[in-house]
Amino acid sequence: MKLKDMSLEELLKVIESGEKTSEEIYEYFTKRIEKYDSKLWSFLTTNFNGFEKWQEETILKWLPISLKDIFSKTWTITSWASKMLENFKPPFTSTVVERLEKEGMSYVWKNNMDEFAMWGSWEKSAFKNTLNPWGVDRIPGGSSSGWAAAVAAGLVPASLWTDTGWSVRQPASLCWIVWFKPTYGRNSRFWVHAMASSLDCPATFTKTVKDSALLYNIMNGADEKDMTSIQDKDIISDEVFTKTNLKGKVIWVPKEYFEEGLEENVRIEIKNAINKMKELWAEIKEISLPMTKYWVTTYYILMPAEVSTNIARLDGLRYGHNSTKEYSSVDEMYQNNRWEGLWEEVKRRTIIWNYVLSAGFYDAYYKKASQIRTLIIQDFDKAFEEVNAIISPVSPEAAWKIWTKSSDPLKMYLADAYTIPPSLAWLPGISVPCGFVEEDWEKLPVWIQILTQRLNEKELFEIANVYEKAINLRSEMVPEGFDD
């Protein structure tokens, strides 16, 4: 197996065996970025001087990991893929980045994303249009597109991202890599630029389920700088990855996930995944989620309302772009700064934010949506009394062609119908491959989403690892055109 296709675990074994040094592997990946990123445009900035072996024994042994342009590093440009913060250099480092750094993470730096993580296809970045390595005429997924494309094409072995509604899950499934997000609060959000504070969750892109656990063990734990962080440190032991079947596991397939909106070719692959779990001795159970029809509406009221608070400080005075246009009032000054610094999707959502939080509408929209969120959480809590895990599609369709949905925001918003509920309920989740579909003579990946109850990451990794090994599609997870 080539280095570009290896997992973190496999690369660590190469270093431990003496076959390659940490520095040689670092240089190997930086050269791949220099050679191939012009085909994908997955990086906004690069740092090829990030190999700093400042202590000998570390878990990650200086393997390169890239960061979404939303994680802060002291005095390093963190733009959020927006002209509003094009030259912003934060004074602090994100806690999760700091923890990875202490365990030997080397830097190749920041990947592209949709501006302020607001969109589902990369088409709203202020700087570049990232392409999908499985088909450069197709989108690579939502706001975390740059990292998904980079890991899929073997430019880096892993990447760090945030997930709000589908920012990690959808691009991972469209680019054929593993995503993992823990229970909300497991990973600190300190100096991770906030989109919607009660939904955002630092997460990872990796080649394998076990790699996700490796990074999770380093990243999670209490942080006094983040009041939402969970106090208990969680450690996933190697014993979790010794299981070979799903005997005793009850897997729930929500019937609402297979109704209107799911493309038939994707439906077939998901059904095949369910049958595979049956072969692995899992009991498959169908249960209903009564609040399903309210998921998307609830999310698109709560999320924009929270973003409005977080983005209000980007006015050109406290932070952000400062226009050179003349102005006759403070309002006009703010208008100039934000009109020039923000792109169309951010402006669109700003209108929604201000509307749902305005006097006379707060109770009718935001308060009501908050109450429905509680019912959604109760839906899942009730279900997990009967089952160990839930499986579902990640995306209702395979990667669609560039610009085919960008002019219709409603279609884009509906594309994350399967990933919104776990975010609203703060559930941990992971994805594994289940097959391919063919569209216009292109082979496109399909993935399933696995969810467990809050704070039950151990069982999540156990189920995902058993299925990943049984389906055994690692050799097919390599897109063409990115060979050494």
Textual characterization of the structure:
The chain has a domain at 3-250 and 461-476: Amidase signature (AS) enzymes (Alpha-Beta Complex), CATH 3.90.1300. Strands 2-1-3-5-4-9-10-8-6-7 form a 10-stranded mixed sheet, sandwiched between helices. The chain has 484 residues and is an alpha/beta fold. Helix 8 (295-311) crosses helix 10 and helix 8 crosses helix 11. The radius of gyration is 21 Å and the shape is globular. It is built from 14 helices and 10 strands. Helix 7 links the parallel strand 6 and strand 7 (283-285). 35% of the residues lie in helices and 12% in strands.
Mean pLDDT: 84
| SS strand fraction | 5-15%
SSE order: HHEHEHEHEEHEHEHHHHEHHEEH
Shape: globular
The main sheet orders its strands as 2-1-3-5-4-9-10-8-6-7
Oligomeric status of the shown chains?
Answer: single chain
The CATH homology group name of the domain at 3-250 and 461-476: Amidase signature (AS) domain
Give the helix level as a range of percent: 25-40%
Main sheet summary: 10 strands, mixed
Number of helices: 14
What is the β-strand count? 10
The assigned CATH architecture of the domain at 3-250 and 461-476 is Alpha-Beta Complex
Low-confidence stretches: none
List keywords for this structure.
484 residues; alpha/beta; Amidase signature (AS) enzymes
Task: Give the structure's gist in a few sentences.
It is built from 14 helices and 10 strands.
List the helices and strands and how they pair.
Elements: H1 8-17, H2 22-40, E1 64-68, H3 95-102, E2 106-111, H4 145-152, E3 159-163, H5 169-175, E4 178-181, E5 201-206, H6 209-219, E6 250-252, H7 264-279, E7 283-285, H8 295-311, H9 330-341, H10 344-357, H11 362-383, E8 389-393, H12 409-414, H13 420-424, E9 429-439, E10 442-451, H14 457-471
Parallel strand pairs: 1-2, 1-3, 6-7, 6-8
Antiparallel strand pairs: 3-5, 4-5, 4-9, 8-10, 9-10
Helix pairs in contact: 8-10, 8-11
